[in-house]
Write a structure and sequence with these properties.
2 copies of one chain form a homodimer. In chain A, 41% of the residues are buried. With 197 residues, chain A is mainly α. Chain A has a domain of 135 residues: Tetracycline Repressor, domain 2 (Orthogonal Bundle). Chain A contains 9 helices and no strands. Chains A and B meet through helix 6, helix 7, helix 8 and helix 9 of A and helix 6, helix 7, helix 8 and helix 9 of B. The structure holds a DNA duplex (30 and 30 nucleotides).
DNA sequence: TTGCGCTGAGAACGCGCGTTCTCTATAGTA
DNA sequence: TACTATAGAGAACGCGCGTTCTCAGCGCAA
C-alpha cells in the first residue's frame, strides 16, 4: 500500500522461519556440509524450487541460521542479566546462562565456533558472522564491566573464560565448565575491583 | 630379521611423513572436507594408489594428522615449561607458548577444535581424538597445579582460559588473547595460592 | 468456457568427491 | 634371455551434492 510498510508477515516469511528452524537443528547437530539440500527439503516439506525462491543459496541459509542464533544468544544473555540487579551480578549471570545451556540435551558447543571451524576458511561470510557475534559479545561484557567500574583489562579476561567454557563443555562433555568459569570470573572481578577500591 | 624390530624406518615411513606434513598444512588452512584426495596427490607427488597403500582411508590421514598435532603440542608445552623453574612459572609458560603460536602467520586456531566443529558430529574418531587431546592437556595442567600446591579447582580454570584464548585469537584475530589469558591466570593462581597460604 | 500466466513439485544436470581397477614398467630368478 | 611377481600411475567408477529446468495444475479475467 505504501512505501513504509516493513513489518508485514507474509506466508513466505512463515516458510522462511520454518526452513531456518529445521536447518538450524540439522546443521547444529551434524554440521553444515553433512546436511544436503534434499534433506532440508524432506524435513521441511518445502520443495527445492520454493527453497531457492526463499533463499538464493545454501550459504544464505547458513547465514540466516547464524543471524538467528546471534539474536537468540543476545536475548538469552539479556534475560539472564535482567534477573539480577548489580553490574557484578550481570557479569556473573553470563555463566549462569551458559550453565543452563550446557545442560540441554542437544548441546553441542557454540554454533558459531563449530561453523567457523567447518567453513570459516572457505566461506568468508561465515567467518565474518562469527567475528561479528564474538565482537558483539565482547562489547557487551566491556559495557557491563565499565558499569561496574572495573578496569579495562577485566572484560577480555571474562570473555575468554566464556569462550573457553563453551569449548570445554562441548568437547569434554562436562557441563561443569560453566561453574568453573563462573568461579574464576568471580575471582577475577574481585581482584580487579579490589585493586581499584 | 627378528620379531623385536620396531624402529626400522622404511621408505614408506618417509612417504607417510610427507603425506602427513602436506595434509596437515592443507587441512589446517582450509578444512578437511575442502581438500580432496586428488589435491593431496598432486601436492605430495604420491599417487592415489600409493596413498591408499600408506593409509586405508582419508579418515585415517586426518587421524594421523591429529595425532602428530597432539605430539607437537605436548612437546611445545614441555619445551616452554623447561625454560622456567617454578611450578607457577610452568603454569604461566602455557600462555607464553600460546602467545608465540598465535603470532605465527598461518595461525588459524586450534586444529582439534576446528576439526571437531567440522567432523566431530559425523566422525566419532575425530571427536575422540579431540577429547583425548583436551583431556591430556587438562591432566598436565592439573599435575603442574598440584606441584604448585594449588587447590584442585584451579587447574580447570586455567585450562578454560587456554581454550578461550585459542578460540578468541582464532576468530577475532587478536594474538593478545594469550597475554590477557596469562594475566588472568596469574591472578587466579595468586588468589588460589593466597587463600592456601 | 476458454485462454493465460504463474506457482511449485520434483526430475534432471553437471560436477567433484573417495575409492578402486587396469595396465604398464621393472626387477629378480633360473 | 625369458618369465613372473610386484608396485605404481592415473584413468575410471559410482555416488551424492548444489543448483536448475520442465511441465503439470490451478486461479482468474473476459
Amino acid at each position: 500500500m505504501d512505501a513504509t510498510e516493513t513489518t508485514v508477515i507474509t506466508a513466505d516469511d512463515a516458510l522462511r522461519t520454518r526452513a531456518i528452524d529445521v536447518a538450524d537443528r540439522l546443521f547444529y547437530t551434524r554440521g553444515v556440509q553433512s546436511v544436503s539440500m534434499d534433506e532440508l527439503r524432506s524435513e521441511t516439506g518445502i520443495s527445492l524450487k520454493k527453497m531457492y525462491a526463499l533463499f538464493p543459496s545454501k550459504e544464505q541459509i547458513v547465514l540466516a541460521v547464524l543471524a538467528r542464533r546471534h539474536d537468540i544468544w543476545t536475548a538469552g544473555i539479556a534475560d539472564a542479566a535482567s534477573r539480577v540487579s548489580t553490574p557484578r551480578d550481570r557479569l556473573l549471570a553470563i555463566y549462569d546462562f551458559l550453565a543452563d545451556w550446557f545442560t540441554e540435551d542437544d548441546f553441542r558447543g557454540c554454533g558459531f565456533i563449530n561453523s567457523f571451524g567447518e567453513l570459516g576458511a572457505t566461506v568468508p561470510a561465515v567467518a565474518e558472522a562469527t567475528r561479528d557475534q564474538k565482537a558483539s559479545f565482547q562489547q557487551y561484557v566491556a559495557e557491563v564491566a565499565a558499569e561496574a567500574g572495573a578496569p579495562a583489562y577485566l572484560a577480555p579476561q571474562l570473555a575468554i573464560l566464556a569462550e573457553g567454557a563453551q569449548t570445554t563443555a562441548a568437547i569434554s562433555g562436562v557441563p561443569d565448565a560453566a561453574g568453573q568459569a563462573r568461579a574464576a570470573a568471580a575471582t577475577l572481578i574481585d581482584a580487579a575491583m579490589g585493586s581499584r577500591a
